[in-house]
Amino acid sequence: MEIKLEYVRKRSEFGRPCSFSDALAEVTVDIPPDPSLASDFIPQDPVDFALQEGPVMAVHEVNTERVQVSVKGVNHVEGGWPQHIDPKNSELTSRYREEVEREDVYTRSVQRLGSLVEHCLRQNNAIDIYEEYFEEEEEEEEEEEHPSAKTVSVIRDPNTTKRMATHISWHPDANRAVAVAYCSLDFQDSRKDMSFDSYIWDLEKPYSPELTLKPSSPLVTLEYHSKDWHHVLGGCYNGQIVYWDTRKGGLPVEMTPVELSHRDPVYGACWLPSRTGTECFSGSTDGQVLWWDIRKMSQPSEKLILDITKEDQLKKALGASALDFAPAMPTKFLVGTEQGTIISCNRDAKTPPEKIAHIFSGHLGAVYRVTRNPFFPKVFLSVGDWTARIWTEELMDSSSIMETKYHTPYLLDGCWSPVKPAVFFTAKSDGTLDIWDFLFHQKEPSLSLKVSNDPLLSLCSQDNGRILGCGTRLGIVSLLEISPGLCTMRKNEKTLTSTMFERETRREKVLQDKHRERLLREQDRARAQPEEQEDPQEVFEKAREDFFSIIKAEKRRRGQEDPEESEEGEEAAQ
Question: Is the peptide bond before 33 cis (omega within 30 degrees of 0)?
Fold first, then answer.
């Protein structure tokens, strides 16, 4: 039993009470002026004083609470029927329809709505309320606008030891955040105090990360789930696959075992649009593509060895340096390899060798990026060595249908614009961003912008195509806002792009047929003529004469012709 004692006393019963009364004013202190101190005073008129109630800070921020927005879809198949009526049963629906049509309310409603619809039809026939009177003038004004881009924000690696921003992924919910994978891809990078962390940044607070992801090995790639926004998939440098639930913090929810994971860095990891939303697959330079289910990541659910000889041997496999998957083609995916070839794979094939459907060859170096066009899935872009090439799956054995010029610096990444079918972006090793629009310029980029002095390693555009993220070698991510002309689809632009792709496809097909005919003619001619033995000395003499003739022509062009030097050079060569 608890004993409680309560002591109550009025406020007026303790303390000295205050007594107020009226009194006249009286002088308590009077200090007369001292004339001897007058010389020490300096009059100032006017006198200003600045007062600041709050402390002055270098960086401060005020943000209101974010409203959680949810997007929900409704599949409206057949509506307007009561619960006891099955819309698929024709007898029930026809019987219910007859009962409703016999009611007086139905007749009055039809008569009342009929007059309104008739009035709207007559008004629409008289005046086109959707007519745009100044549409042509607006299009002309838009065409005159010059392409431009400006930096709106910069995100830096918070660690002292800087790493590369290897991959960028935008948050699916209105792109309010961006996930950046940080990793050093230099061979045997032995710098001390190198952090393994990657970060998720809120665009409204770019000075500090919203969430720090702590993997067991540095992340090479990082991808948001398109539907379940809280799930993030990562591919590590040591070959492991990791996924996070951002509601549970920065520690991984689960990761694949090292002995069953990839043997090399994971350069591509993608979510699959399955019913459960838990399936994904990954590609690595060890020559394997592995499928996973995040509910059970103890072992891969499926495996594919990238052996183009179709012998299914890992020692002959090509290393995957890029991976692409488009939801529009759920059974197909593209793999860019270190050897410069692009492999089109079909997951629904019965045997592993049959899953490697087609091979595209054209790059001289590693393919750093391969991605499908969001409007035409059969057309895809590849970035490697010094060029970016556009391919189509309608021509399996030919070269690319379009390509950029050969640049001096390497091309390290690229991506399509999500809103304009003929626009794509490329990143170069000299820190330059190129924006290409094939409807206006086929040989030169529409805009070339120097973003950084360091190489640009990663590119990713928002869903609206307005903001583009560029990651550099020192871990700096620059967010660029593109001018409206480069992120607004014009009239008939999709049709014009489709026509252009079809024209280039036909042209490439004609060239391919002519090349085959020429090879067949040369083979027939070689069979008809007897084989002639070439004299090696004659071949050498002819090559030497051609060499010195080219040198003379070049000197003559430059105005440096010296006959004595040329004769001495020939004698020395002999």
Answer: no
Residue range 424-481, pLDDT digits in tens: 999 998 889 999 888 888 888 888 888 888 888 899 988 888 889 999 988 889 989 8
C-alpha span between 175 and 182 (Å, rounded): 20
Encoded amino acid at 261, one letter: S
- 253 burial (CB, 10 Å; 0-12 / 13-18 / 19+) is middle
Q: 150-488, superfamily in CATH?
A: YVTN repeat-like/Quinoprotein amine dehydrogenase (2.130.10.10)
Please name the helix (run of DSSP H) or strand (run of DSSP E) that holds residue 308, with its range, or none.
Answer: none
- pTM recorded for the entire structure: 0.64
Residue from 380, 366, 394 nearest 424 by CA:
380
Q: Which pair of tokens denotes residue 225?
A: 């789930």
- Given this model, what pLDDT does residue 399 score? 81
Q: Residue for token digits 């100044």?
A: 134
Structure tokens at 125: 């026939």
- pLDDT by residue (tens digit) across 119-147? 888 888 887 767 776 665 554 444 556 88
The low-confidence residues of the chain, meaning pLDDT below 50, are 139-142, 563, 566, 572-574
What's the confidence (pLDDT) of residue 137? Answer: 53
3 state SS of 333? strand
- In the chain, what are the domain boundaries? 150-488, 546-573
DSSP secondary structure of 39-95: GG----SS------SSPP-SS----PPPPP--------SS-S--TTS-TT-HHHHHH
In whole angstroms, give the CA distance from residue 311 to residue 317: 9
Contact status, residue 435 vs residue 409, Cβ threshold 8 Å: no
387's enclosing H/E stretch is strand 387-392
Tokens of 60: 């401060």
Helix, strand or coil, per DSSP, at residue 281: strand
Q: How far are the Cα atoms of 189, 234, 371, 474, 475 from residue 159, in angstroms, in the given order?
A: 16, 20, 31, 11, 10
Contact residues for 151 (Cβ-Cβ < 8 A; gap 6+)? 451, 478, 479, 480, 481
Taking alpha carbons only, the member of 49, 169, 160, 109 closest to residue 461 is 169
